[in-house]
Amino acid sequence: MKLDRLRRLRPAQGLLATVIAITLLLGARTRAQGPGNNRSHLPTDWSHRHIVFSPPTSFRQAWELQKEPRFWHQWARRNEWALRSANGHVEREDRDRGRDREHDGDRDRDRDDSPAPSNESMRRDWAMSLGANGTVGAGQFPAKFSFDVNAAPSCANDFIAFNTSLAGVSPTTAAKQATADTFSALGVLAPAGTFTITQGATSLVLTAAANNTGNNFMVGSNLLGGAATNAASLAARIVALGGPVGVTATAAGANVTVSALQKGIAGNSITVASTLTNFTVGSTPLAGGVGTGNIVAFNQLYTSQSGGLPAGLCGTNGPSVYWSYFTGTGTAVTSIVLSIDGTKVAFVENVGGTATLRILKWKSGEGTGAGYPVAVDQDISGANWSTCTAGNSCIASIAFSGTAATDSKSPPFYNYATDELYVGNDNGVLHKFTGVFLGTPAEVGAAGSWPIPVDAGTILTGPVFDNTSKNIFVGDSTGQLSFVKEIGSVTGVCGAGSPPCLGMVSQALTGSIVDAPYVDASTGRVLVFDGTETTKQGSVFQFDTALTAGSKVTVGIGGNGTTPLANLPFDILHGGAFDDAYFSAGPGSGHLYTCGKDPGFNNRPAIYQLSFTGPIPGPAGVLVTTGVPAPLANLTNTFSLIGDACSPISEIKNGATDRIFFSFATNANPPAGGGTATGCTAGQGCVASIVIGGAWPPAATTAGIAAPFILTGAQSGSGGASGIVVDNVGVGGQESSIYYSYQTNSTAAVTCNTTAGVGCAVKVTQSALQ
Questions:
Q1: For residues 697-714, average pLDDT
Q2: In 242-358, where does DSSP find H-type helix?
Q3: 530 to each of 425, 569, 595, 711, 718, how far by Cα in Å?
Q4: 100-132 exposure pattern, b = at least 16 Cβ within 10 A, e = fewer
Q5: What sign has the CA pseudo-torsion 385, 388, 392, 393?
Q6: pLDDT digits over 194-214, tens only?
Q7: Is 98 exposed, middle or buried (0-12, 13-18, 19+ CB in 10 A)?
Q8: Coil, strand, or helix at residue 513?
């Protein structure tokens, strides 16, 4: 590998490329020591979007920033193809065509950026059930793990994990028919017809015949004991062939009882049907299954499912459930975080009114779905991870100390350098845990130290630890932005005592902050998104890491004369995303994209492009507060008190094309109706993308795909998608993707792989969202 080759990746990022190149060269020296020594794992969870790194201003700063692994992770995501090439995994280069191989990144089965044809707008690579009402949650994210960024994507080892937000139920009972299927003893002729078992999009059809080949089962006359023989024959074929639909069967006399193979609630959706003569169908669907998972992961990701889509890198059979666990009777409603090697995950489960940190060492093959979980093999709570028996899945659980409170908005933030974790609760208190993935997990609790009251009685966002300032930034439900000085912090002043302490300065922005702050560790600036602050506007605020000097940009007003109401969806403002130029050429060349409100309608989303100053005339990375261009509006239509709040925005540059992705809950307004939501389905929620880098605003979104919206019932007013995780860049089939869950159950209009009435984990391709 040549050093100048990495420098050519992004000319303005020469310092960074040089540091990374040195790192790679040093790593390459150990390659001969054996396989596996040079794998570079790439975890992607919610935290990677909240601590970012624009180009370092000096070699020294670049070297210091590398102490934060997220610095390397960010670089690797944006230069993934080069890492593979440098390590011998890309077979050719495109020098002869005057461009990098990276420019081929969009050459999936969808080869351009044109809007998805209307007949394809409802297609998805795959969709997997999370169970009825299962969802990652508004503004929360699944977590993606890539086994080796230096190699081609791995079907076996790459995975994505979803919390379900469902109350966990111990898997104790498999579903079965309460009333058996019965062969009549009266028929002279052998039964004829079919017996069908269906689970989700998969069916098993068995045909009565004179043999037991293929999907046939042998039958004879029901007289003189033949009914019992026929029942045994049918049950035997179900046992032999029922795996794909998750069933087995038993026979007793002339009766056949179908039951689920696994314990859990998913089996309760299995149906049976028959056209057999001289036969009575028993109860359907199956019933009595008990067991609900808190967390589920899928591998074999780069695949297609039903609907005739071309094969991906991993085939056409859809993803596989990698593991699925019941971890407790509470609900996990915030984002998951990953260990750096992906072998463990951490998340918060609310149990009986108290937030509890769960740290899980998973084992592949345990559990077969959110509705078919298993219990963890071994509980090591209070002990070191070395006590986890080899070959077992293990869990450590720690209830938050102090006054009982749940955690509804604060996903945990993990510090890779110290094996420590920070997380807030719904009573305004910030907690710290040590030994999380590598030692003895425990909460830090000492007088005058942790946990730290930040803003009593408020709901905290996720905390963000800045390794440069050693400060932890957190927002809350009253619109206050605060910081905690960790040990080693020299930025800002303690309100009392010495670090760890609550900073003396906070910013009372009013309104409500629901997403964690964003910190650019290179420029030392903090961004926060406030849904409805003092002036009843959605606003983006920026401060330094001492929370002193600040600026503000408004991203929507109540132009229709309606005063926003507290805690309704259109009062919520989720986080934005920076474009590639921000990272490659510096903040002065880049932009921040956020979903604010239509200037004329405070309940309709609009996408804004915000800018930053360069080195001249002032410091780099200062939010520009004047001359904000008009947003892309008209994405939705009709006034609605249930609102059209957007999800957080996500971004990826794939090849030459830089895209942002986001969703909104309802009332999509496609061009056919005079709107700008290309590819969306009128009246539904939508996941949409925009190709950025050209004139702003564009005429419309580039592509879109429907997400369900429910108007009535228990989930009334919910729709759209959770936070969106972006995947690889590359040329393989369905390799470059995004992942999310619906915020509501699938419907007849927008199903989950043909199934309605369930929450859904979804993967679609980046280039055309199909």
A1: 86
A2: none
A3: 19, 13, 12, 27, 21
A4: bbbbbbbbbbbeebebbeeebbbbbbbbbbbbb
A5: negative
A6: 999 999 889 999 999 999 999
A7: exposed
A8: coil
Q: What pLDDT sits at residue 564?
A: 43
Considering only CA atoms, which of 703, 766, 690 is closest in space to residue 731? 766
- The sign of the CA dihedral 738, 744, 746, 748 is negative
Q: How far apart are CA 562 and CA 574, in angstroms?
A: 21
Phi, psi of 638 (to 5 degrees): 70, 135
- The pTM assigned to this predicted structure is 0.90
Between the alpha carbon of residue 280 and those of residues 276, 286, 746, the distances in Å are: 8, 16, 32
Give the residue-averaged pLDDT of 618-624: 84
Q: How far apart are CA 440 and CA 382, in angstroms?
A: 7
Which residues, listed in sequence order, are joined to residue 518 by a DSSP beta bridge? 527
Tens-place pLDDT, residues 250-297 = 999 999 999 999 999 999 999 999 999 999 999 999 999 999 999 999
Residue with tokens 């004179």: 210
Which candidate, 154, 315, 162, places its Cα nearest to that of 728?
154
CA neighbor of 488 nearest in space, from 417, 553, 431, 433: 417
| 3-class secondary structure, 423 | strand
Q: Is 485 helix (H, G, I), strand (E, B) or coil?
A: strand
668: DSSP letter: B
Query: What was the pLDDT predicted at 732?
Result: 74
**Beta bridge partners of residue 349, listed in sequence order:** 356
The phi, psi pair for 60, rounded to 5°, reads -60, -45
State which amino acid sits at residue 638.
Answer: T
The DSSP 8-state label assigned to residue 463 in this structure reads -
515 near 496, Cβ under 8 Å? no
By the 8 A CB rule, do 423 and 463 touch?
yes
Name the nearest CA neighbour of 389 among 361, 419, 364, 367: 361
Evaluate whether 218 touches 203 at the Cβ level (below 8 Å).
Answer: no
Are the C-beta atoms of 576 and 595 separated by less than 8 Å?
Answer: yes
Residues linked to residue 601 through DSSP beta bridges, in sequence order: 598
**What SS3 class is residue 240?**
helix
Q: What does the DSSP assignment read for 337-348?
A: EE-TTSSEEEEE
Nearest to 203 by CA among 239, 244, 142: 244
Angle made by CA atoms 442, 447, 452, in degrees to the nearest 5: 70
3-class state of residue 581 by DSSP: helix
Q: Residue for token digits 């056949």?
A: 256
The pair phi, psi for residue 410, each rounded to 5°, is -110, 95
Taking CA atoms, 172 is separated from 326, 362, 367, 371, 414, in Å, by: 11, 20, 13, 12, 34
**And the tokens for 569?**
């969806």
d(CA 741, CA 136): 6
Q: Which burial class, exposed, middle or buried, applies to 578 when counting CB atoms under 10 A from its CB (0-12, 13-18, 19+)?
A: buried
For residue 697, say if its preceding peptide bond is cis, omega within 30 degrees of 0: yes
Residue 557's nearest CA partner among 536, 582, 578 is 536
Question: Which residues are paired to 204 by β-bridges?
Answer: 197
Task: Kindly state the tokens that stand for 615.
Answer: 């080195």
Q: In the prediction, which pLDDT does 19 show?
A: 56
Q: Can you tell me the distance from the alpha carbon of 594 to that of 30, in angstroms, rounded to the nearest whole number?
A: 43
Task: Give the side-chain half-sphere CA count within 13 A for 529.
Answer: 28
Question: Quick check: 361 pLDDT over 50?
Answer: yes
Q: Are 206 and 242 in contact (CB under 8 A)?
A: no
DSSP assignment of 67-129? TSHHHHHHHHHHTHHHHHHHTT------GGGTS-GGGGTT-SSS-S-SPPPGGGTT--SEEEE
Q: Does the structure show a pLDDT above 50 at 704?
A: yes
- Host H or E run for residue 507: strand 507-508
Length of the chain as a residue count: 770
The two structure tokens encoding residue 426: 């719904």
Q: Answer with the residue of higher pLDDT: 27 or 353.
A: 353
User: What's the whole-number mean pLDDT along residues 185-189?
Assistant: 84
Let me know: does 56 contact 62? Beta carbons within 8 Å. Answer: yes
